[in-house]
Design brief:
By secondary structure, the chain is of the alpha+beta class. It has helices at about 5-20, 25-30, 40-45, 60-75, 155-160, 180-190, 200-210, 220-230, 235-240, 250-260, 265-275; strands at about 35-40, 55-60, 80-85, 105-110, 115, 130-135, 135-140, 145-150, 170, 175. The chain has an 8-stranded mixed sheet with strand order 5-6-7-8-2-1-9-10. A hairpin with a 3-residue loop joins strand 7 (about 135-140) and strand 8 (about 145-150). Helix 1 (about 5-20) packs antiparallel against helix 2 (about 25-30), helix 7 (about 200-210) runs antiparallel to helix 8 (about 220-230) and helix 10 (about 250-260) packs across helix 11 (about 265-275). The longest helix has 18 residues, at about 5-20.
Amino acid sequence: MNKQYIERYLKEKVEDFTKGLGITTDMQRKVKNNVVVAGGSIRSLLSGEEPNDIDIYFKDQKLLFEVVRQVIDDNYVEASVLLGNPNEDDGSYDVGDGWTNNGSNGVYVWLQSMGVWEPDDEPDPEKQEVAFITGNAITFSNGFQLVTRFTGSEEEILSTFDFAHTTNYYSIQKGLVLNDEALVAILNKQLVYVGSKYPLASLMRIKKFEKIGYSIPTSELLKIAFNLNDFDLTDEAVLADQLTGVDVSYTGELVREVKSYGKDIDTGYLMKLASEIYVK
């Protein structure tokens, strides 16, 4: 697909997303000017494929807070919406209208239901209904995923990404922005690790990309291994935080087992747990 087609496609999708939120016309205008689309959807479009889903990011933390809080209220979800992530440090954060946070630039949904919320009734894929909520994202039935964990400029958002092929983006102000490293990675169907705050999540995402024909050189696996060395995965909070971006249905059991263990965690225990849970 050519660049003009992709820009037109994504512009229409952003408009569909904002209308589907059920917010005022003024808020819709603010959201459209604030949204960044990045990740796998652009890779799919460049490869001539229809995206399975579209990841939506916000530049402004306060605007994201307002939108998330409305979604939570509209769906009667038992949750608190926090500025910042309570897992990142011991700083303060306020619930409700307070703007104090712990330095994180995201919005965190503190759920009462074991960290995950799903509606009682099956959501309608023809409408924009909430299908799934975690602390880090809201997934809608029509293929949009609102990522709440990060906000910032386009460049700041991309700095949280792990593989080169995901680092193209779209915004109304800049249109579709492509970078050479991403295009080469897509052309070669190769995973190129560019570093991440969440290397464990990157490691677990490799299988997903292999299923669509991507390969990963040994050099890139070594980069992830070196990056992982910066984190103590025997720390319960660090381990849970490192799984950010991985499907909760895939990692939830691991996190629950670790939290309920009641003893000091060591590498041997984690290896045994991985063997018991991930048999495929």
